[in-house]
Amino acid sequence: MQCGRVDLKSALYDTTQLKRSPSWLDKDCSQFGPPLFQSESGSRVPLSSILPQVQVEAVLWGLGTAIGELPPYFISRAARLSGREVDAMEELDSDDRGIMAAQLNQIKRWFLSHAQYLNFLTILVLASTVFIISVCNNQLLDWIENEFIRVLSHVPGLSSALPGVIANLHAMKDKYLKAPHPVSPNVKVSILSDSFSSNDSHRAAAKRATHVLADLAKNEEVVNVIVEGGAIPALVMHLQAPPLDPNDSFHNPLPFEHEVEKGSAFALGLLAVKPEHQQFIVDNGALKHLVNLLKRHNSGLTSRAVNSLIRRAADAITNLAHENSSIKTRVRMEGGIPPLVDLLQVADTKVQRAAAGALRTLAFKNDENKNEIVECNALPTLILMLRSEDAAVHYEAVGVIGNLVHSSPNIKKEVLLAGALQPVIGLLSSCCSESQREAALLLGQFAATDSDCKVSIHFTVLTIPL
């Protein structure tokens, strides 16, 4: 209660709730008015005034604690009824070598033998809000500190050194309790610009910088600040591996291989959520590097780090091409569609989903992209994905097929000839409501303009076992 007041709350339950902070947390004391409680040592609020302000929180906290104690209570009760507490005492009577082990067993034995005599009143006092606030109250702790200092000041030799020690302890407390300063994106951009090398320390610094920028980019209010600070060229530069050290004759692995590139792709994907930054990212050459990252799977590397990198690269392409027809065309011209189709066959379902999501975006209202996806023989794999047990996989697959056949009668025929009709109808009974909706829309496209498709749908529905 540094402000010397208790009327800070704007509502009865004005406290921390998930991601929302209380209204009074970041306000200055001057906004509430002069302190109502004063003492010789400054603003001090008595305990009797604090308790009414926290009674709602205390009751809810107590209810949650009580409910949480029910499972261990029933377990303990069942153990007592079955005689298991005797077994526990016998375990403590076992021969343990060492003085410390014997002392610990003695303490445990005393607690087990006396715990059953702790009555309700004792537990209530120990768990009560009054007890907790009394123990944790700042005024009580300050009083204990002052008394402790007073006693130590009478010890010979300590009286002269005590003030310096106390000042250092207070400085440490203020340092760790002080709110951290917000991280400046410009500092991290500068680190990225100066650390494009295979040096261990440079790679570690670049990895940390990309992670910080990605975390900052999750807040849309900060995205423009990050872009204006020059983050995009620096991040694009780190989408590729730096030149190897010419003095490294042993060809050691690149430090944090794939990690820096993954962080850069993730950060760029978050920045691309804002349409006004999509073209700027592409103009800085990001697409070429992102497509090359997709091809790292072809080098025979199948580690978790590689799969995570590929997934971030595919997600970045998805965000860049979202509702941007020119960038969709640029992705095709940079050769991005063939590796995305190849990634549909990867065993990692997360990579499959990311690749399918990118193809779904690229196929939307872009005939050239649709044709290339089909020419890359994506249909057989997409139809297999329709039968996947992973709801996210068959949701993305049916979405890709839906965008491929939209306003494309020739592709629609190829999809039907490839055997997509029965698995699409099967998705109508999927546990995923979004897949059900996508399947229904796709069936509507199949039957919209072709009477033969209507007959095929009717015949397939009749042949599906109930």
Question: Overall pLDDT, averaged?
Answer: 80
- Give the CATH H-level superfamily of the domain at 185-350: Leucine-rich Repeat Variant
Fold-level CATH name of the domain at 185-350:
Leucine-rich Repeat Variant
* Level-1 CATH class name of the domain at 185-350: Mainly Alpha
Amount of helix = 55-70%
Instruction: Give the SSE order as H and E letters.
Output: HHHHHHHHHHHHHHHHHHHHHHHHHHH
General shape: extended
What Rg do the Cα atoms give?
Answer: 33 Å
Q: What is the CATH architecture annotation of the domain at 185-350?
A: Alpha Horseshoe
Q: State the separation between the terminal residues, measured CA to CA.
A: 68 Å
Parts with pLDDT < 50 across at least 5 consecutive residues: none
Our estimate of the beta-strand percent is: under 5%
Number of DSSP helices? 27
| Helix/strand/pairing category | mainly alpha
Count the E strands.
0
Q: How would you characterize the largest beta sheet?
A: none
ARM repeats: 285-335, 335-370, 377-419
Transmembrane segments: 117-135
Keywords: Membrane, Repeat, Transmembrane, Transmembrane helix
Pfam family, one: Arm
